[in-house]
Amino acid sequence: MLTKVWSVASRGLEALEIEVEVNVAAKGFPGFQIVGLPTKAVEEAKERVRTALVNTGIAFPAKKIVVNLAPADIPKEGSAYDLAMAVGILAAIGEIVLPACAGRPEKKIYFYGEVGLDGRLRHTRGVFLLASLAFEKGVKEIFVPKLSANEASVVKGVKSFPVVSLRQLIRHFQGEKKIRALKNLDKNRLIEAAEVDFDFKEVVGQEQAKRALLIAAAGGHNVLMVGPPGSGKTMLARALPGILPELLEAEALEVTKIYSVTGNIEPGGGLVRRRPFRSPHHTTSRMGLIGGGTKPMPGEISLAHRGVLFLDEFAEYPRTTLEALRQPLEDGVVTVVRVAGAMKFPASFMLVAASNPCPCGWLNHPKKPCICLPGQILNYQKRMSGPILDRIDIHINVPFVEVGKLRQDTPEVKEVHTSGVIRLQVVVARKIQEIRLKNDYIFTNGEMRNKQIKKYCRLSEDAERLLQTAADKFQLSARSYFRVIKISRTIADLERAEGIEYNHVAEALQYRVRS
Amino acid sequence: MPHPQSDLLYNKLMREWKEWEIKLLKYKDFPAGLQRVRPKVKQLFYRGEWKKDLFDKAVAVVGSRKITKYGRMATEMMVRGLTEAGYTIVSGFMYGVDTAAHKTCLENKGRTVAVLGCGLDCLTPAENDSLYTKILENGGLVVSEFTPKQEAKLWTFPYRNRIVAGLSQAVLVIEAGEKSGSLVTARWAFQQKKKVLAVPGMITASLSKGTNWLIKNGAGLARDANDILEELGGIRPLKEKRKGRILPKLRGEEAAVVEWLKREEMDADELSRKLNKSITQINILLSELCLKGVVEESGNKFMLGLEYVD
């Protein structure tokens, strides 16, 4: 007897409906075959499904079973078809009765998930994508592993049934004991502030760097920190999530999609609630960073979408890896083309890079002598190419702090800025930007292009004059010129100023690229 | 075989100095100072136009290959003063102090002589390509005792230092670490009974260890160009002691920043603590002062512009 059930395949960040046809023939030698370009993991589903059914107490039919995954010309990967096949076999041998759908999407049911040998369902990646597709196609019911079901619960209008085991599923369709569908969760209530390793108040001194990070966080600007080892670059970067605003609802959905597909959501986890903070090691391969593979998958820059990509030891990354960042930094999206097809992955992230000034790290240090040869220093700094540096809005030096000197200098009463206080400023500034930029479908000043800069960044007369003088004196490139305006805009937003004033530009100039 | 035209283009664009003929100077034509140098210099190759008066008044300005902001300032001050007094600047063409000395001399329309540690058709260091041409174009010389095609080796540099000393009346060491090639030059100069002067530095600065040691061991103290001129026996040829340029009118806050920077170079954080002002205010002030040219920036430190240093 032939039955049809539906499941979903994912291609990059897109999902595709798959029809799983199961035929248990009355005649022919007993056997189990899967057709429709299955890869190894799909092929092995035979043994998993067979054993799981037997261990659930079903007499596995000693008949010729053929499973077809249609459309048959698209390669099928992964273990997520296990459940659909098992259900198909159960229906084909009459163990359960599926509601007839006759092609109407609202009657269709998606089955998705990996089955263990004991008949229990395992955490499977991509459930969020499945739920999104179900919503798009008008499918009302989906059956997914319980450990992954929370991902689906944020998609409204789709009933997701958390399945623990095949036995439970059989009971559900036999009408003995129904599985209760998950309630749709309110996304806004789920979103929470990121957990942080450090509070800004724990970082001693470094007022310049803190101010720069505040501006960067407020405007979504990229930052490069240069300083000797131990000056606090990494600590500052790790404190950054604490001053970033919470994810917006729309942002959270984008991030969840990427995390779901790449299997980065923990079992039982649902919506990604915290702004991503990714810090890949400098030995990360180019594809690991950008995304790729024969079947293209998102890389670190996409996992940092709407969050922070922290590249420590920036100059230690291979040059080719860094150069590959150019286009995503500009466009906020990366297109990966492979034989299997072209995929677009969102990659709108805030780049925070940290580097030493020279190979030994002690260049310009007040006490320790630098032991590098001039040529070595030049070579080291040359690794970060002009085009990359030009795409980083804020450049700061993080000097070595002599603790004794600091104590002696610091006046008695000095307001201490905690991450909480700073974050409040960031949130207000971001809100201002969100409202101003909503017609351009961007969120922050950092994402502004020249067109928007011209539209939204009015400089007062003396600010304009100051910028002109600076452009001549510091020989600013056209791109750096616009960067200064962008940062000025963010500084103005932090002060809730309507236009860009003299002081805003004057401060922004201190964060420019030094050649 | 390379394309003839590309070869031509290469010579034309990349190595303009190669168009200057390499000439050989015989021992009998050497300046007197050079004839006395031991081990004896047998031959001297040179590019440029040999003029006798070039070595009548010549001072060697040498120092470490690494150069600090202080070293650069000192080089600029000294070389400017010496050039204005009509002295030829002799140096070793290496990066760091040597290059700074050659460049400052050229900026002040002076003549400068580069003594290479390799054959005249080799270029070490490679980034001094355009400096090579400029020295020749401005009436200077590039000289070497090594035959063409001789590449720079570790031993060639200390060896050529005796020529640096031999061509000049005095050797000025700007910056030198404890084991610096500049100390070798100073030793040659002592041997040749030439005057040696050194620029003093902080006792904690690693690149001033060598110069301070020289001063302790008999080198003259060079605080400005006048000190050198005095040592060379001339009555002060400079009109007056050079005064720092008068600062433009500054606001109270700006003046306070300048006041601190007069004492020592600082980064923005230090200024913010010293002046008890927010970093935002300091950044604004620093931008303004930089644009006015009163303050300069190097590495991560801010300092008073060279013209304004007394």
UniProtKB/TrEMBL annotation, chain A:
Q: Where are the compositionally biased (Basic residues) regions? A: 272-284
- Taking every annotated instance into account, which residue ranges of this chain make up the domain AAA+ ATPase? 219-402
> Molecular function (GO) terms listed?
ATP binding
User: Region (Disordered) spans which residues?
Assistant: 270-291
Q: Which domain of life is it from?
A: Bacteria
NCBIfam families in UniProt: YifB family Mg chelatase-like AAA ATPase
Per the similarity annotation, which family is this?
Answer: Belongs to the Mg-chelatase subunits D/I family. ComM subfamily.
Record's protein name:
Mg chelatase, subunit ChlI
